[in-house]
Design a protein that fits this description.
Elements (H helix, E strand, L loop, with lengths): L1 H28 L10 H6 L5 H10 L11 E6 L1 H10 L10 H9 L2 E3 L10 E8 L6 E7 L5 E2 L3 E10 L2 E6 L8 H7 L4 H7 L7 H5 L8 E6 L1 H10 L11 H9 L2 E3 L12 E4 L5 E6 L3 E4 L5 E11 L2 E6 L8
Parallel strand pairs: 1-7, 8-14
Antiparallel strand pairs: 1-2, 3-4, 4-5, 5-6, 6-7, 8-9, 10-11, 11-12, 12-13, 13-14
Length: 325
């Protein structure tokens, strides 16, 4: 009996030991749990309303960019916005859009870092897109007077969708690459300038300043609304923009435009002579700030610089400069 008892105990011990070893082996072979992510790319891929955006990201190779750990802010257009963009630009589908163009259009919806809607204010920021006039990033005009509007074409419909690597703001339109006219129309600072550019039906300014081929790129020294108000007050016999003779207005507007050059603030030099579309020049002097001296020895301060468009750059001035008449 004792021998059987010892055999039973040894068998039970062996069974228990084998079980423990087996359990230990199972634990060692268990794979680590899969960590679920919710990146910008994940959000777009998993939302049917953004299937066009997801497809565009894949075509341009930007999915991996928005699937990483770097934080971005994305203004995300939905499928209806993409359909309108394709139709408005004569494309039958995403595959018809040149990849290089589509890449920059998408990057024009992206900013580095996480920017919540409450942190946006009226003014200019940079997108990650680069246009044809410069290697510098394109500007975006944000207007927060009534919600959030970008470049005067896209409104934020849903803000502050937080994800693992940034924040998404849904928008109702694709934000195309801006030209000079885009910013003139979007920024209320230039509303009088727009009135001047469009006062006469045969004025060519709007069509010219939308061009991306020659005579682009352009450098525009854009007077503010107050600058035009001051001009009207200074001119004899003029009480409104409509009272300025057509030839005087046309030559004055041309005097604010440089063709064939994207001249950024870093390119300005002291005593720089600037040739304009009016076939007259003015001089820029640098000191505490950049000052323009026109053909009549009047001066204008450059008060904001480097609003970068796809076909040129805008600098804001506080006085309308005048060519010799």
């Amino acid at each position: 009996m004792k021998s059987y008892s010892k055999l039973f105990k040894f068998t039970a011990f062996l069974f228990l030991f084998t079980g423990l070893v087996a359990c230990s082996d199972d634990d060692d072979s268990t794979a680590p749990p899969v960590v679920e992510t919710n990146t910008i790319a994940d959000f777009v891929a998993n939302n049917q309303n953004y299937s066009s955006l997801a497809a565009a990201l894949e075509v341009t190779g930007l999915t991996s960019t928005l699937d990483g750990t770097q934080n971005y802010t994305v203004f995300a257009p939905d499928n209806d916005a993409f359909a309108a963009f394709l139709s408005d630009n004569g494309f039958s589908g995403l595959n018809d859009v040149p990849t290089a163009l589509l890449t920059q259009v998408l990057l024009n919806h992206v900013q580095m870092g996480e920017i919540m809607a409450a942190d946006l204010s009226t003014g200019y920021i940079e997108s990650m897109a680069v246009g044809g006039a410069s290697e510098e990033n394109l500007s975006m005009y944000i207007n927060t007077d009534n919600g959030v509007m970008i470049n005067g074409v896209a409104s934020v419909t849903t803000a502050d969708v937080e994800v693992d690597n940034g924040v998404i703001h849904a928008v109702d339109a694709v934000i195309g690459l801006p030209n000079i006219v885009t910013f003139a129309l979007a920024d209320p600072t230039f509303s009088t300038l727009v009135q001047a550019l469009t006062r006469e039906e045969d004025f060519p300014f709007v069509g010219v300043l939308m061009q991306t081929d020659s005579p682009a790129p352009f450098t525009v020294f854009a007077p503010t609304n107050q600058a035009f108000a001051d001009l009207i007050e200074d001119l004899d016999g003029v009480s409104s923009l409509d009272d300025i003779p057509t030839d005087v207005l046309a030559s004055t507007l041309s005097y604010h435009v440089v063709a064939g050059a994207n001249v950024r603030s870093s390119d300005l030099t002291d005593d720089m002579v600037v040739a304009t579309l009016a076939e007259q020049s003015f001089t820029i002097n640098l000191g505490d700030g950049a000052v323009i001296t026109d053909a009549n020895q009047r001066t204008a301060n450059i008060i904001a610089v480097d609003v970068q468009a796809n076909n040129g750059v805008i600098h804001v001035i506080d006085t309308v400069v005048l060519p010799a008449m």
